[in-house]
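All the exercises in this workshop are built on plain-text protein records. A record pairs a protein's sequence with a compact description of its fold. Backbone structure tokens are a discrete shorthand for how the chain folds in space. Once this layout is familiar, the rest of the handout is easier to follow. As an example, a complete record with its sequence and its structure tokens follows.
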Amino acid sequence: MLLDFHATFNLHRDVMPWILAQGAPVSENTERSSRTLRIVNVEQDGSVLYTWKGTGGFTSIGSYDPHFVQNKLLYSFDQDLYIISCSVNCEKTLLALSYCRSPGENKFEPIWPVSRYLALLIEIQPINNVRVLKVVDSSMKVQFLYPTEEMCRFPESHLLVVSEERYIEQYHICVATEEEGKVVIKNSGQLPKDRITEDFVWAQWDASEQRLFYIVPKRSSCVLHCVQFYPEDHYKNVFEVPLEIILSDQVISFVNLGIDVLEERGRSKVKSPNLQVFTNNMGGLCLIYVQPSQVAHEVNYMVVFLHKGCSKTFKVQTAMEHSTPLKNASFINLDSYIVVYLPDQFLHLINTRHPDLMCYHLFLAGDDARIPGMCCDCPLQSVLKSCVLEYCTGILYSVRINQSQLVKLLSLTRLDADKLAILHCVLLNLNYQPHLETQLIEWICENLSTCQSFDPIQEFITASLYRKFSSEAVYLDKLLPYTSVPLWNEDIDGVSCTTDITDMPVVKVGILKGFWEKFHSELEYMKVAQLRFRYANYIHRRDWCKLINEVDTKEKRNGVYQRSVLENVKKVLLNMETWSSDQRTVPLYQEEEYQHKELMGLMVIKLKDHLSQYLHIGKSKIDKIVLDYVSRQLDIVCLILEVVWRKFNMESCVFNFSGRGSSTEYFAFHVMCRISEAASKMCMPLPPGFHTLQLVLGVRCLPLGNFLHCIDSGVLHLTENFVVKLLKELDDDGHNEKIKYSIIIRLPEAIIEKVHHLWDHAISNKVIGMKYVKQQLCNLKKKEFTRQPVLNRSPLYMNFLPLNYLIMMLSEVEETALNPFEDDNIDATFLEEIALKQTAIALRLQRR
């Protein structure tokens, strides 16, 4: 099961035994109470308000406190009433409710009064006074405001009254505390009130953040408004935005404002629109609406991403029999995802942070989409974030994504779109679960060749870094990359999707904080999104090589720049978690790999410059973000290697040249090659010691020709530590001498000058001679000298004029030098012998 449903509250489990313990006759009370027991509201603090009808026509209202796990009777009427809505203030001293009398249950009053809907305000600490707020002909909803901060507890409470006569009012109730803790209402006469709005057709209460959304019809479309209530006894109209939807004005629809069963009230049976608004912690705000479909057994639902200025309309063909009617779709808010669930048909996880590419939305059908134990005939109502209510059963569920099930599903799916969607879903919700992270890395390493449309290593590194750092500062999530997939053209099987541009909300509030600050940053980003100022972490190999060459030449000439680069490298390595851990099994050592050391420092400078352009925070904060980002990038690579080493119990003994590599070592070498390839495309440095370990595994696992081809093609990068290890540990038999020679001739000049003395071979003598000539010619001043016959000729003397001229010139330099044998104890005669021998080897007249 992809979603975990945990029953945090169950009417029949948590309330029914308490009702039966009140002392009423068991047989009769059990049947009636069980039949009439139902939930009417869930408050911001998780308190559940419920009502039931006992013997003698009594109607009671109770409250369940989830923190203390106890029930409390709030109020009881001595008559048979149908409670429409009720709410209790945060101090639990006032109860507001609206009700009507049910003609079907009250046989003693066949003639109804003109106005049968009432809204009451009751003092419940202790039960003292009942005040009538309204007596009207239309149904009403009541909801107390809860302060989002620890303030305004007393002396005032605020109550919303939402009427089907299409207006919303806010009442201000002053209370006073008398002796013995008695709380009474101070207002005498009419309570002061504000008119919030009127002429709306749909309203939704967001209990978590104390927000009210409502829709007002306007000509051929609708306008969505939002009102934010604050603890300081005021409210603000935050934004409004036109919607390309049309809602019927025949019925007023409410969301999260109490139960709304039209059939029980004897009202019109016009179906209410299935529409709801959701927010997430990153400033995302979405509206989802199930549209009426003209095609039988086709479900159409539109998701308007208000923070992105776009909408997506999904059309899903169901597998229902033609005679079976479709059930209502349910929505679940999981912060970064909105779940659209149609029982026995499909389950769709819609990514609200990154909705642009279809591969980020996970669509499941058939058995994968089933949620066992749920009532298929009753839609779920998302009352709080990650919390849904099943009205027909009276069960409140907390919902979360089952990460273990996602990882298992990852191993079963075959489509790249599903793999990428699952990968993002796991990483986005993966917090402090190292065992699942290990399973995910194992799957990535085993499926590197099965993903044709994306590189799983790149996606794992990029998405992991985005999850960790996107919330470090406001606007940072717009500047860091979240994927390595720039485009996606594949569709989801069984689902068609169209994307449209929508109007951006008009924010009416000047000073923003909390969620609205993040929401405003999303809107501002979308206004300048054409600039595309995300940090680029994906380049081609040609550009990578060009960057390396620039680092090797031009940038090194600037001493200040070079010192800055080296200082950044030192900070990054000290900040890595890998080097501070005593449980490392991978034989990585901090060594000098000059190219990646330079690239590491260069990346710190480039990323710091990039963030400084757009983040308006302190320099020290930016420096810390950049340092942590680059360090974590290297730690992720080390983590992948650690998982491979531990899975196959690979010991550090593989870090030598004795013996041939096993199948597990070849697997590790393959993974390292794919990591190196991903890093080159992402312009990303690798941790110190990575290339040396990769080269050692390459020597153990590959034939010499393949190994040299990997070096020539840039797959493997020669390092000084590897060459030193190779020259010291391998003896000079025929095969090993061939390996050494093949490596030496491929070394960059910077390395070969440091290691040539470790191998007593003709190739080393050649290097010594070249170094000697270069140094002498650089020190040679322009002067005239007389050609003199060279008396001591070597036995290999050949009459070759260029060589003779060079030897004569070097001999004269030696004669004037204070110590002619200070450079590796060679002289012109030795150099002549080396040159003649190398020439004979080049002409294949002599073997090496």
